[in-house]
């Protein structure tokens, strides 16, 4: 195997916009929001702070998607291949968390906020995984 | 895409957890939480504190060869164990009344949420992407040794951090079980 290893490593020298960093921050915010919601169970939680966290998290996710969409000479095919499978896995994870809360009689606005957070969660993780995989499969230098 | 035996086992575990939650089945919830948590903690500690430092001293080629066999198992196993432990644990805490504000375990459980939250961000935001990228790199006809070394270094540091955080989980959970 060692003979197959490439020695030159220009791929890791290419600079990318902070897509992974922004998405990790977005993920951290929904996790904090989720902890706040779960810490009140089975009572009805106050929604102000979790809503603010979800909004900021969604904004970070959108910013990171925008930065990603502007990338040139990026391994898009590999990105979407990984994104699809990771999305399937994390939709199942998010669905299971949502199921547990619905089963525990979470209803109305808290349930809506929880679903929004789970959607962000289910998009954040596949985006980070797919971006990390694709960045190391991309050409060393972008055309831009 | 063919479904492997390992994937079938993981799918069966997820279905078992869903059925346990739906049926509020105390034994099954306890089983899922204890078995999942024990495996999660033990694997994290073993990988972070024993395998990690050993791997860090191996050559890039040896690390790459190890990663090619190790990562496919971890990518499937760890998220399943985490899901099993957390989903069953939350349900168990609700069922046992541990989440009521008057319960002495309430504060401990909130602390455990925070510990798990930090571990989740590290695992999902750093560890899992690094595992997946190593896997894809290894499947290339000419894997890039520098990329694998970089990603494995990230894997080793984060596995060490989550391993140490598992010690905090052990303290909290033994406290909860004995109050």
Question: Please, could you describe this protein's structure?
Answer:
The complex is a heterodimer of chains A (144) and B (179). Chain A is mainly α and 144 residues long. Chain A contains four helices and no strands. In chain A, helix 1 (19-40) packs antiparallel against helix 2 (48-69). Chain A is elongated, with a radius of gyration of 18 Å. Chain B has 179 residues and is mainly α. Chain B has one domain. Chain B contains five helices and no strands. The longest helix of chain B has 36 residues, at 60-95.
Q: What's the number of extended β-strand segments of chain A?
A: 0
The fraction of residues in strands of chain A falls at under 5%
Shape of chain A: elongated
**Topology as H/E string of chain B?**
HHHHH
Largest sheet of chain A: none
Number of strands of chain B: 0
Note the total helix count of chain B.
5
What spatial form of chain B do the alpha-carbon principal axes imply? globular
Oligomeric state: heterodimer
User: What is the alpha-carbon Rg of chain B in Å?
Assistant: 18 Å
Q: State the share of residues found in helices of chain B, binned by percent.
A: over 70%
Number of domain modules of chain A? 1
Q: Helix segment count of chain A? A: 4
Arithmetic mean pLDDT of chain A: 87
Uncertain ranges of chain A: 1-9
Mean pLDDT rating of chain B? 86
Q: Any descriptors?
A:
heterodimer, A: 144 residues, mainly alpha, 69% helix, 0% strand, elongated, disordered N terminus, B: 179 residues, globular
Quick recap of the structure?
The complex is a heterodimer of chains A (144) and B (179). Chain A is mainly alpha-helical and 144 residues long. Chain A has helices at 19-40, 48-69, 76-103, 108-135.
